[in-house]
Amino acid sequence: MPSNDTRMSMLAAPLASALMGTVWLYRFPDKIEHEWKKLRSIYLGKTGSKANLPFAGLLTVLRASGATSATLNPTSKSKPPQFLALSKKLPAAHLRAAVALWEQALLQTPAEEISLAYSSDLADLFASVEPEHVAVWDHVRHGRRAVDADGWVWDAASSNLASLVAKTALPVDGRTIALRPDTENNVMVWDTDHLWSNNWLDARPAKDKKNDSPKSAADESQAPEEWKVRRHYAALRVEVAMKSLHSLPVPLVVMTPRVSRLSNQINGARTAWWAPRSPSRPLLCLNLGGKGKYTHLEHTSRLALDAWVRLMDEPVFPRDPKDTEFLPVSAMDLSGEPGAFRALIPFSKSFPLGKGVGLHTVAALADHLSEVTGQDLVRGRQVAKVLSVAARKTEYGRDATLLDDVDLQDIMAAAGCSRLRILALYEHQEMRTRMQRLLAYHFNRPDLASGMPDDEIVELGCHTEVLLHRAPELLSHGGHHDQRGALTDALPGLEAEGTGVLALVETEYDAKEWGRQRRAARRGEEGAVDPYTLDAKPEVSRHLARHGVLAQFLTPTTKKLRSKKKEREAESPLEALGMELAADFPGHMAIGDMLRAAGLVHPRLTRAISTGKGLKDRVAHLGLHMRAQLGEKHTHRTEEPKLMWVLTAFVPVGEHWETLAYLPADRGGSGGWFNYARAQGLSRSRPIPEGSRGDDTLPRRIDHALFELARRLECGYVLYVSGDSTRPVWPLLSNKNADLLPDDGLINGRPALPGATLAPEHRPRAVIRTTSSADPSIPVPALFHEIGEDGNENDGDKTSNALFQLDGTDTTFLMSRRPHQMDGKTPSAKSGRNQGRWACDDKEQQAETWYNLTATEIAVIQRPDGDDALPYALTTARLCNHALAWEHRTRHPLPIHAAIQMDKNHPEYRRTIDWEVDDATG
Questions:
Q1: Where are the alpha helices (DSSP H) in 14-91?
Q2: What DSSP designation does 780 have?
Q3: CA 247 to CA 244: how far, in whole Å?
Q4: How far apart are CA 614 and CA 224, in angstroms?
Q5: Which of 102, 313, 547, 789 has its CA 20 to 30 A from that of 585?
Q6: Separation CA 892–CA 624 (nearest Å)
Q7: In the 3-class helix/strand/coil scheme, how is 434-489 assigned residue by residue?
Q8: Residue 614 CB: number of other CB atoms within 10 A?
Q9: Distance between CA atoms of 459 and 575, rounded to whole angstroms?
């Protein structure tokens, strides 16, 4: 074994048969189909709903009342359930009562008429089945490089594992903390003695100011405002789930820790828990709907609690005799010490307890997981320590390596232009001055920082020119969207031969205030208007894109910016200007992202890819990103589903790199490969295409795009795909299919991988899937160990940015990612390294985010026979350290990141995303 071999342990452990536990399978007779469809028909008549029966409420009450997992299989409305899986055998009378009560609740039986003696053929059928006791392990399909199972197996195993984890208290910070499972396979700290708490007066105390004037008696006796001393609470919550990783032939238990910040009111909340009196029963995880004062229990949760109250004779909410609603007014107020009913804060907002649990708590959870399972944690061996090679570096925010390069004109030529023009559009004089100084600094004309004329082309350095123009009517928010097209058309300097035109645009945006106004509008408050309907930004972006101009927006600064760098004597006017602007991070990032949109790629990318054991061959690097358009618009069922998919390509051209992007053809115009800037302009000027990941034609359309590029390339190409979004489209991107072999590029009649149906000379040389630990299926790094020459193992560093190859596989790697905030010099940058939140007495630190490591899984799905997977994985990791407009590491490699940014810049993007996160994982 080599000296100083570094090993990483993940917050995950391999599973064995005993750990997965057993279940009782209630296999229903054929009569279930008739009874289920009959009940659906009655339910349709009562409610008008054509959806499947809301069986989630039945499962919730079974889980809570029986302290068991509960799963029906299958769950589609076209196929009635064939069996019920419970981890604990329930008495027939209990099962019948639960089904009967649930049936009466969903049929809207008046409360006074609901009875345990209710006649229900479906309940009788459930109760008549004699269950079969089986091991969960026996229902897992094990392959040479994959594991697979039906959905109920994953759920049953996860429930059993959550119960196992909660049986033993968590030792951390000198405490022994009890964990309580809920009905959704989480374990949670519930004991109020072990909740974290803080208030704003402690979290952000007023700083003493030098003032010699004596304070008045009124000042001395004035009490702080109520909101400052109101105590807020948060709890540790850990998701426990059975998962799989690519090419690992064993299932894993993965733990994902979160800080769950508890709300002091129910208004607007979406997730809540209720604790039964008996501590041996799991918490009921409830879903809420509605807005503001109209917040209510979601239908299935209401059904579950309705059945629970009658089955267990245990009221959920304390109520006055006057209360007529199931969720009484008294339950809406959750202020004070948390009780039996608790809700998550409804949206991300300021809170005196920060997100993230910190490294120390992750390590404690890892030790706990290993202890309760009796298994060693999932491990990986370090195969590359230094991943940041030739990455973007700036001095006072300026990318001098790119902008001062003697070959900058050739870099621009590779991007499709001979020079750049920046159209600086502003509304207020303060922003004009700020833009002027930023542009003078970045483009090496410090002499122009004090003055540039409006509406005239001004030559900057770096083959760039600028035109400043005041456009208050165009940029101001309001309902005059129908005028913005003509106002845009009248702008000067929109076109120039051989010149890439970019726009740096002022916009007003206050996330907190806009959020408050939006919530007020949703509640129907008089005079309240959703500010997003008046937002000028998407309309300005779209209309500028019609002219091929890419807009980058810049918001005014709301507080004085101060640099944390030590001051020193400037050696040039440019450096002096840079030192003055050093703290304007949003401004520098706007300039950097503008250059990224232009498609400028410095040749340092070549060095980043090929250094060390990276790929030496000259190949193009392609990225595929996919996102379903969800959000508010998706609620209108008359609207066609939308799917944004983006292919980008970084193609070597001589010593430089050409950046391309593919635009699918749609009603808005023709598609094809364009240079990156041109493709963005076309994309932003068109609506997001219609479609879904389930479209049979989607893989063929993407293969056609790959073919169009491959036939014009002089080299091969490597394709990187985002595992977060593409797994359902191609069989071999799913972990469960790793053992399948394609037949002529197909698996079960579907293209096995992107490009698999093409001729061999047009296929990708390699297909690499990357998945971020933002997806709970990817475990986070927990511990590091050093193995010396003598074979002894010692504790290693607490953090790492290295690449690790997972034990037991040749093709799966994990890149540990240390958040760049942990490298800062503020006290909070080190929070959580040596203690958990329970041991922290510093209330100001408690209000900060406590970071822990994250990870990116790199799975080399396909590569040429005989090639080692390491060069492909290492190149992928290096590309994660080479964003065009960002100095730090990204979740995905450069080609995917560039595609994601292109998607995010679309005017219709608006914060519609593929997943929902109710709190932070750190």
A1: 17-20, 31-47, 56-66
A2: P
A3: 9
A4: 60
A5: 547
A6: 11
A7: HHHHHHHHHCCCHHHCCCCCECCCEECCCCEEEEEEECHHHHCCCCCHHHHHHHHH
A8: 22
A9: 20
690 close to 640: Cβ distance less than 8 angstroms: yes
Residue type present at position 598: A
**Rounded distance, CA 616 to CA 610, Å?**
5
130: CB partners within 8 A, 6+ apart: none
Write down the pLDDT at residue 634: 42
Phi, psi angles (nearest 5°) of residue 737: -105, 15
Element (H, E) at 699: helix 698-710
Determine the Cα–Cα distance for residues 921 and 362; give it in Å rounded to an integer: 11
Rounded CA-CA distance 697/258 in Å is 39
pLDDT digits 0-9 by tens, 224-246:
788 788 899 999 999 999 999 99
Q: What angle do CA 329, 323, 191 make, to 5 degrees?
A: 50
Measured between alpha carbons, how far is 191 from 299 in angstroms, rounded to an integer?
A: 29
- 775 φ, ψ to 5°? -80, 120
Q: Which residues have a Cβ under 8 Å from the Cβ of 601 and sit 6 or more positions away?
A: 411, 414, 415, 650, 656, 657, 658, 659, 884
| Beta-ladder partners of 85 | 25, 71
Residue owning tokens 């399909």: 141
| Cα of 766 vs its chain's centroid, Å | 26
Q: How many CA atoms lie within 13 A of 874 on its CB side?
A: 21
pLDDT in tens, 293-304: 778 888 888 878
Instruction: State how far the Cα of 324 lies from the Cα of 309, in Å rounded to an integer.
Output: 15
SS3 199: coil
CB-CB contact of 96 with 116 (8 Å): no
Closest to 384 in 3D by CA, of 809, 813, 867, 900: 813
- Rounded Cα gap, residues 814 and 52, in angstroms: 40
C-beta atoms surrounding 492 within 10 Å: 11
**pLDDT at position 918:** 32
Strands 186-188 and 232-243: antiparallel
At 220 the three-state DSSP class reads helix
H or E element in which residue 590 lies = helix 585-597
pLDDT surpassing 90 at residue 387? no
Taking only Cα atoms into account, the Rg of the chain, rounded to an integer number of angstroms, comes to 30
Task: Determine the Cα–Cα distance for residues 906 and 684; give it in Å rounded to an integer.
Answer: 5
Q: In whole angstroms, what separates CA 575 from the centre of its chain?
A: 38
Contact at 8 Å (CB) between 53 and 36?
Answer: yes
Of 656, 655, 661, 652, nearest to 619 by C-alpha is: 652
116 neighbors 100 (Cβ within 8 angstroms): yes
Amino acid identity, position 133:
H
Q: Is the pLDDT of residue 2 over 50?
A: no
Determine contact, residues 638/879, Cβ cutoff 8 Å.
no
Tally DSSP H helices, then E strands, for the chain. Answer: 27, 38
The pLDDT tens digits for 404-434 are 989 999 999 999 999 999 999 999 999 999 9
Percent of the chain with pLDDT over 70: 92
**589 is written with which tokens?**
């990032």
Q: How far apart are CA 855 and CA 809, in angstroms?
A: 17
Paired sense of beta strands 458-459 and 643-653, if any: unpaired
pLDDT digits (tens, 9 = 90+) for 118-176: 999 999 999 999 999 999 999 999 999 999 999 999 999 999 999 999 999 999 999 99
Amino acid at 553: F
pTM over the 0.85 mark: yes
